[in-house]
Amino acid sequence: MSWRLKIFSGSANPGLAEEIAEHLDMPLGEMETFRFADGEVSVRIAESVRGEDVFVIQPTAPPVNEHLLELLVILDALRRASAARITAVIPYFGYARQDRKTKPREPITSKLVANLLTSAGADRILTVDLHAGQIWGFFDIPLDHLPSRLMLAAYFREKGLRNVVVVSPDIGGVGRAREFAAELGVPIAIIDKRRDRPNQVKEITHVIGKVYRRTAILVDDIVDTAGTLTMGAQALMSRGVVEVFACCAHALLSGPAIERLVASPIRELVVTNTVPVSASKRVDKVRVVSIAPILADAIRRVHEDRSVSELFSRPAEPQPSGATRRP
Q1: Which ranges in the chain are annotated with CATH 3.40.50.2020?
Q2: Topology of 5-146+293-309 in CATH?
Q3: Radius of gyration over alpha carbons of the chain, in Å?
Q4: Left, alpha or beta for 35 (phi > 0: left; psi -120 to 50: alpha)?
């Protein structure tokens, strides 16, 4: 391809952007971002992007609205600067939990966000662990969806856990848990819960599957207030689980999340850096695995018009001695 690769970073997760640029052995593009006195965001691309293949790294992490609007403004600036192709790299796609109507007169906000990104100038989307598969279909432009399970499963393989079961914290996450369990070669179990409203789980009614005297790994895509994970861990311990680990791609860790984690029976919560995890949230139980290597490889493949799916459709590698395996 004759287009030259350039990478720009918004303000949502500059640390991740710098890691990605380092893996690609190139500098980040020069861009100025500033706010007017009333809070309006403005950007200026400080170098030529005419005819270039441009990637913008900006998760819509909290504050979600602020970072989403900043991304839209950056995309518009690049489009008006005549970039040949613009890929929005959104490691965490905010508003993904508003993916369908559950009651009359509700919006489908993730579809609205998809439309906004396309209208602003994105030619392609690169993201990690979408909350729901149907969001893929909300876009009329190509979308590359990367699973975090490769990085997270590798972490647990290295721990050499024995007699493991992967647990989905709800019925909706069964597909995610099944794929994670396949990476480790272990069985799955499912927690059946009832939720009254967002961020509040009323009760856990059943645990489906064999968990007694096993080491459980709770697998979810987002940890927000940590209510789902901590209640799930308590339910598993009450059913005879030896110890509980948890892993999630997107560590929002809002409100009482850290307090709940510290008080919970969860031994470790393993997350990625799709959103920045501040020092105050990196308590002893929280482990952060960088997603930068797989994002950098995906960016390189998109730029070179090579398959991205090969990153996660490869045959499973042999497990080292003492790694997690089916009991």
Answers
A1: 5-146+293-309, 149-290
A2: Rossmann fold (3.40.50)
A3: 20
A4: beta
pLDDT, one tens digit for every residue, the chain (327 residues): 578 999 999 999 999 999 999 999 999 999 999 999 999 999 999 999 999 999 999 999 999 999 999 999 999 999 999 999 999 999 999 999 898 888 899 999 999 999 999 999 999 999 999 988 788 889 999 999 999 998 999 999 999 999 999 999 988 899 999 999 999 999 999 998 665 555 555 566 689 999 999 999 999 999 999 999 999 999 999 999 999 999 999 999 999 999 999 999 999 999 999 999 999 999 999 999 999 999 999 999 999 999 999 888 754 443 333 334 433
Catalytic residues: 193
Cβ proximity of 248 and 227 under 8 Å? no
Q: Which residues pair with 34 in a beta bridge?
A: 42
Fold annotation for 149-290: Rossmann fold (3.40.50)
187 vs 217: CA distance, rounded Å? 11
Query: Rounded to whole angstroms, how far apart are CA atoms 266 and 286?
Result: 10
Q: Residue 167 forms beta bridges with which residues?
A: 189, 218
Place of tokens 């080292």: 320
Where do we find the tokens 């007169």?
105
Q: Which two tokens stand for residue 184?
A: 């480790």
Dist. CA 53–CA 6, nearest whole Å: 6
Residue 244: closest CA among 278, 272, 207: 207
Cα separation, 315 vs 302, in Å, equals 21
Q: Tokens 């905010």 belong to which residue?
A: 94
Q: Scanning the structure block, which residue is given the tokens 């730029």? A: 303
**Measured distance CA(201)–CA(146) in Å, rounded:** 28
DSSP codes of every residue in 165-189: EEEESSGGGHHHHHHHHHHHT--EE
pTM: 0.90
